[in-house]
Write a structure and sequence with these properties.
Number of strands: 0
Largest sheet: none
Order of helices and strands: HHHHHHH
Structural class: mainly alpha
Helix content: 40-55%
Distance between the termini: 49 Å
Strand content: under 5%
Radius of gyration: 27 Å
Length: 147
Amino acid sequence: MIDLEDHCSLAREIESAHRAGAQLREACAVARIEVHTLQRRRDADGLERGDHRPCAVRPTPAHALSPEEREQLPRVANEPRFADLTPARIVPTLANQGVYLASESSFQRVLRTRRQTRHRGRAKAAPPSAGNPRGERHSPGTVVGHD
């Protein structure tokens, strides 16, 4: 995000160019912003108080997992019967047993925060690709290995 000082400076430069005869649309294009963005900032006091989106108070959704539920997911995922399964396989297996703990995406998110999403359990890492053994990069359309 651009800080308030930069927004104000950019707006002053665009206004100066516009007063000097430049079209507003062209001045904004050079600054890489849309005319509507400049107008919205100017009209909504955005150039005086800044962009408060990062500081906005966002309430916790009512359906969010509780801390206890978040702790339960890794314990279940690390049980021997699920140790080598992904959340996409764990959730349906539990559902078949009549148990619902969280959605696949919630399972995935919790496991990702604990760095447990890659090569779970006995799953092995994929072998390196044999297509390019030297790891060289080529531009698209380049024929490689044909001399």
